[in-house]
Design brief:
Elements lengths: L7 H19 L5 E2 L4 E3 L4 E4 L3 E3 L4 E3 L6 E5 L1 E2 L2 E2 L1 E4 L4 E2 L4 E4 L2 E4 L4 E2 L4 E3 L19 E3 L4 E2 L4 E2 L4 E2 L4 E2 L4 E2 L7 E4 L4 E5 L16 H15 L5 H9 L6
Parallel strand pairs: 1-4, 2-5, 3-6, 4-9, 5-10, 6-11, 9-12, 10-13, 11-14, 12-15, 13-16, 14-17, 15-18, 16-19, 17-20, 19-21
Antiparallel strand pairs: 7-8, 21-22
Amino acid sequence: MRRDRRPYFIRRLLDAWVRFYTRRFIVPAFDEVGGGLSVTSPRDIEIFGGNIRVGSHAHIHAARGNLTRLCTWTTDGREGRITIGDYVLISPGTHIVASESISIGSNTMFASGCYVSDSDWHDTYDRTRELEKHAPIVIGENVWLGVRVIVGKGVTIGDNSIVGAGAVVTKDIPPNCIAAGNPAHVVRQLDPARPMRMRAELFLEPEKMAREMDNLMRYILRENTVGGWLRSVFSPTTDD
């Protein structure tokens, strides 16, 4: 597909369906969720287990065939928990799985396909039990995890730090740095004197932003027709 052929009113109907599905099936799955939750492809989002809390204006995205999963498990009477701050972005294919505790600060961004788990899930010598192979994860505020980053048990990632694509984080990453590699290590320090803009700034006037996005979508789709959309679905060409 080279462009969105849907007429504006079809896009609005689909958006309304997503909002309904989110209210009916996604929101009740959380113990707590703040206002302004936005999701895409909600049928490809799985929320499993208790003690999962999300702050305001979280964006949780999935895609067809690319499941996004937030999951807690109960092991030996201990129930895991996931706590996510405000303005967090979670991209398609990200899995966050807790046996003990995973804490994610506000304004943090997960690129596609990240995997965060606070447990090895099996002991080294007893493959039938987890035993002590678990430890809490703390991801600070305004952290940016690149595509397919893996974060293992017991790790703390400091505020504002960036973890490069494909990195495997097995030890703590300090604040205000860029880390990369397997195992991940610091490759550069960020300049603490430079001002940092965070995702929260996108939501200073959420109603105004929503109107502007709607006007933009109306403009982009202004020439689309029902006939052209149906033709692109059932008989696409190289122009579609």
